[in-house]
Specification:
Blueprint lengths: L5 H7 L25 H8 L14 H14 L3 E5 L2 H12 L5 E5 L4 H13 L3 E5 L5 H7 L4 E7 L11 H10 L4 E4 L4 H4 L9 E5 L13 E5 L11 H4 L10 H5 L3 H14 L5 H12 L1 H20 L4 E5 L9 H7 L7 E6 L2 H11 L4 E2 L9 E3 L11 H6 L6 E5 L5 H16 L3
Parallel strand pairs: 2-3, 2-4, 4-5, 5-6, 10-11
Antiparallel strand pairs: 1-7, 6-7, 8-9, 9-12, 11-12
Helix pairs in contact: 1-3, 3-12, 4-11, 15-17
The structure holds pyridoxal-5'-phosphate.
Length: 428
């Protein structure tokens, strides 16, 4: 059969029931697995044989979701984690030790910014933040001899800037390091970073993959394309005494990275996704292609409407011709730019809050990327821990409201936004 299209993979990939087995991937709510033979279980411990032995390390329901997202992204394997934050942490730790260094784009999600800029710093991993607006030469100067990776978001949260993945992949590969891309906002339905040279793809599955705001989770996908045997990654190539001197690249070839992520860090830190969350997130992915189309259509209509509204100072949405990302959007997101946009309300912080407080259909929640329309004020919420100076540096303006447009009828969404904008402008 020829390679299936992405919408077919959303529905079908990851689980192939055999004769008489349940059509729907069951929830395997079991911590452990029974074996008949001591040597067989021993071989599992030595990584000489594949199989589940303990649900802190792997689980069949979780594996179904991992296989599906790997297929959607065009990767060779995946590990599903307890959150998006855990996915980023584990992906970094797999190749980065104390005393080593990361280069990251400065417009990333606030939680990732504090994870690498503050928490990992305390563990001895330093980060230099760069801006996509800087010249190649400036970015290359940030790459040090001990730099192990470049990290960026395909579509920044919350500024929705589109990253030139090919450019950053060339820069990373020129210095023999991998490019990690957080692809949470576009999802593989709208953009597959591996096709543009990304090596490792990370997701907060909590957002569009789940899509219904039921489950926190994350995923790491390995492209299998990066050559770890270039002298820079001894943690993957050299012998690991914890597994009797096994070398991950020798034993697992192209899967060295994703195997180490599981058998060292998932094993030791205990951050695998739970079977129940994997079941729900898998259910979400089945309708992902349909939902991303509708989210994108609705968000574009909302962006066009807000752009003309007298109470609005500015709108940022990648598919608007006024967006600084417009050209990159044509290249990387021709099918749509997902449901998140940001808008500056006239009259500053107070009017922005009044706008949010006046919304009726749209709810104020700390979330993005589910079927319901949401609003949030980044400066006083998700990015509150950043200083006012750092907020400006990472693109958070004081009057910015982040909207996550759902799949409701767009006329109802527009009515709600309109009445709240009028309310925010009133003197009451
Ligand atoms: C939400 C989010 C994360 C963190 O994911 P959690 O599931 O909340 O831990 C990481 N990156 C991006 C782009 C996000 O939007």
């Amino acid at each position: 059969m020829k390679k299936q299209q992405i919408d077919t993979l959303c529905v079908q990939a990851g689980y192939e029931p055999k004769n008489g087995e349940p059509r729907i991937a069951p929830i395997v709510q079991s911590t452990t697995y029974k074996y008949d033979n001591a040597d067989e279980l021993g071989a599992l411990f030595d990584l000489k044989k594949d199989g589940h032995m303990y649900s802190r390390i792997s689980n069949p329901t979780v594996a179904n979701l991992e296989n599906k997202v790997a297929a959607l992204e065009g990767g060779i394997g995946a590990v599903a984690t307890s959150s998006g934050q855990a996915a980023t942490l584990l992906a970094i730790l797999t190749i980065c030790n104390c005393g080593e260094h990361i280069v990251a784009l400065n417009n990333i999600y606030g939680g990732t910014f504090t994870l690498i800029g503050s928490t990992l710093k305390k563990f001895g991993i330093e980060t230099t933040f760069v801006s996509a607006a800087q010249d190649d030469a400036v970015i290359e100067r940030a790459i040090l001899p001990n730099t192990k990776l470049i990290l960026g978001e395909s579509l920044g949260n919350p500024g929705v800037e589109v990253l030139d993945i090919e450019r950053f992949s060339s820069l990373a590969h020129k210095h023999s390091i991998p490019l990690f891309i957080d692809n949470t906002f576009p999802t593989p339905v709208l953009l597959r970073p591996i096709e543009y040279g990304a090596d490792i793809v990370i997701h907060s599955a909590t957002k569009y993959l789940d899509g219904h705001a039921t489950s926190v989770g994350g995923i790491i996908v390995d492209s299998g394309k990066f050559d770890w045997n270039n002298g820079k990654f001894p943690h993957l190539t050299d012998e690991d005494p914890n597994y009797h001197g096994l070398s991950y690249t020798k034993a697992f070839g192209k899967s060295a990275f994703i195997t180490k992520a599981r058998v060292v860090f998932i094993r030791d830190l205990g951050t695998l996704m739970t079977p129940f969350n994997a079941f729900l997130i898998n259910l979400g992915t089945e309708t992902l292609a349909l939902r991303m189309e509708r989210h994108s259509q609705n968000a574009l209509k909302v962006a066009e409407f807000l752009q003309e509204h007298p109470q609005v100072e500015w709108v940022s949405y990648p598919s608007l011709p006024s967006s600084p990302s417009y050209d990159l959007t044509q290249k990387y997101l021709p099918k749509g730019a997902a449901g998140v946009l940001s808008v500056g309300i006239k009259g500053g912080v107070e009017k922005s809050k009044k706008f949010i407080n006046s919304l009726q259909l749209t709810s104020l929640v700390v979330h993005v990327g589910d079927i319901r329309t949401h609003a949030l004020h980044p400066a006083s919420m998700t990015h509150r821990q950043l200083s006012a100076q750092d907020q400006i540096k990472v693109g958070i303006k004081p009057n910015m409201v982040r909207l996550s447009i759902g799949i409701e009828n767009v006329e109802d969404i527009l009515d709600d936004l309109n009445q709240a904008l009028q309310e925010s402008a009133s003197r009451k």
